[in-house]
């Protein structure tokens, strides 16, 4: 006889790939601890997959192809979604929430695309929607942002949130290889997908940036709001130039609260940038992720760990699962409010950034003055200039102060058209310089 | 007219020093955000201090010397304790919990001394006891350990959790100074207290280690269970020897789950140790704190930030305040179970550690063999030996494999008595070597 108090909590698992099977395994292995932490046993009620015959190692009676029925089943309390992608994940999550199930998801694309609708549905139905695994894998990050720093004011969140591009850039720095060569190596070693577009063009990082900015600034930010540049244009020259000025090149997801006269706004962008080698993010190598946070009172914080992989992602899913299970038993929802600040999202053109520019110029008097004048004409102030002569040519390496991104890009365009400039050999934004 | 739904939540603040006045300021400055995040305004109902005339900048009508009455006042919902020390903090917190108030504390000494009683009282009364600020200041750490990793199995938590000793050791490494000289500098700059005992002898770190181990392993661990060595015996020679083998010296708080035939136990210790400069903790300099975590599924994680100071500590207090306020309005307690695993605490003698030993020996044939035999006699396996001859003497630098700490210390004692050994010039444990 089972009393209602000891009835197990039943979990519907959507998807049983790398992450799903790790979740399944952990629920089994940690059964004793989960029971102690939740207050009740946690059991898997069913697993929705497309091709049951592809999962011979899973208890066959749990498998179903009918995900829609599974997520609304009377006996299911909690739903774990690890399918990824927009559909059918969105429809299934909405159906689960509407049926009063709390949902744990690892789906960054969906959250970045349609977060406000999903949050509103969860709030309306009085259930939880947690998604720690969607950003930076196992690193506890979203919960600290949302909860631990809830009494503080966040200024900036700067993260290395894509392991594939970080591996490629790390290899370029170590070996001097170009992008294509480093990508080929990453693909061969399994660090890059056969179609690497989502990673190398920054789509994956942009989705994560949207989620981070939404939580950090209590403002709805979608992936479409995020300015995005990938790393395919980063050259071996860029990486070498970075090293010359004591920097390293990283693909950064940057979320900032920017003040102006009419109140604050939020700037969210993903692009490669030079950062000083002394910056805590600079030494984050290979496939690791790290997120650097600046808050008004807390100061500088950094979170570091594995950003992907079945086991690390499953660890984050299980942490959320314990939380939503405990909330359910307490009859409460753990969700904080999300979009109340509703700040404006500032376009990249108006966002203050800094540039590094390397130019090949004719080595004759007056060239530096002409170049400097072009920066001044766009109201861009120069922080440092280094000039190296070689024969009748010279290299100018310029780092600017902060200026609106549109002024900086207009300056670069103008420089390309100047007769004295033989070539613009490297242009990259710079972050983290004092 | 105020409806019950919009009645502000009232906070009693115990103590108004550096942290307390920062908490007071933040509650004022963040009023708008706190209301949005909590769902109700949060107001300070009273501030208990010993000497009201020492606080001219605080609204005088809020001040009281009668802390006992304040914490049990009908209109008080939440209590923030930032007095520190064991008494009267313990009596006041227990009175607050018994009166149905949730408590936020920054009191590491009290939590490490009497955690189980405080937790049991909170659970019995159905209220919350949160204390993120007690360990590693602003770094969100306790909540990730307790909640985000709740579905994972922790193996090790290794932290730099005392800024004073980290500053001193950093300066010794940078300047070659001895301990006394570096301590004098730290005192002059305000990084060390006039009486630095709690920091340099490792008491502060041991209290934090006890709290970390309790949460990480769901086992009651008190400060008295923690093996403790401070840094006053660390010499300039130790620091130089560390550098020679690619290491740096840090005061570490180490909490490990150690397996053996009869089930797992927990080893908790604080001592200086050499760690490889490539280890993520090695580059944590000055007054910063960082905690490195190894979990079964999540793998390696690191949390980094400011470990002390009024503002950072206040940020952690306010994060907890928002959480307990939300729990109160939801009628729920956010506290997870704490001591259910109740593992045995293993004494240092039985805990596996590794040693670095530097010896001055006579430079003649057979000495290395004699020394090696002494290690073997204690069943300590040697990982590496480096021998440098200079005249008729030689230096032996030995790093052992892992062995019970008692076997290692017995080996050192025996070496000191060997005729061939002219002196044991440096002995330090080694952590993080593969």
UniProtKB/TrEMBL annotation, chains A, B:
It comes from the Bacteria. Its cofactor is a metal cation. It catalyses: L-homoserine + NAD(+) = L-aspartate 4-semialdehyde + NADH + H(+); L-homoserine + NADP(+) = L-aspartate 4-semialdehyde + NADPH + H(+). Its EC number is 1.1.1.3. Keywords: Amino-acid biosynthesis, Methionine biosynthesis, NADP, Oxidoreductase, Sodium, Threonine biosynthesis. Pathway: Amino-acid biosynthesis; L-threonine biosynthesis; L-threonine from L-aspartate: step 3/5; Amino-acid biosynthesis; L-methionine biosynthesis via de novo pathway; L-homoserine from L-aspartate: step 3/3. CDD domains: ACT_HSDH-Hom. GO terms for molecular function: homoserine dehydrogenase activity. Residues 356-429 form the ACT domain. Pfam families: ACT, Homoserine_dh, NAD_binding_3. Belongs to the homoserine dehydrogenase family. Catalyzes the conversion of L-aspartate-beta-semialdehyde (L-Asa) to L-homoserine (L-Hse), the third step in the biosynthesis of threonine and methionine from aspartate. NCBIfam families: PRK06349.1 (NF004976). PANTHER family: HOMOSERINE DEHYDROGENASE (PTHR43331:SF1). This is Homoserine dehydrogenase. It comes from Blastococcus brunescens.
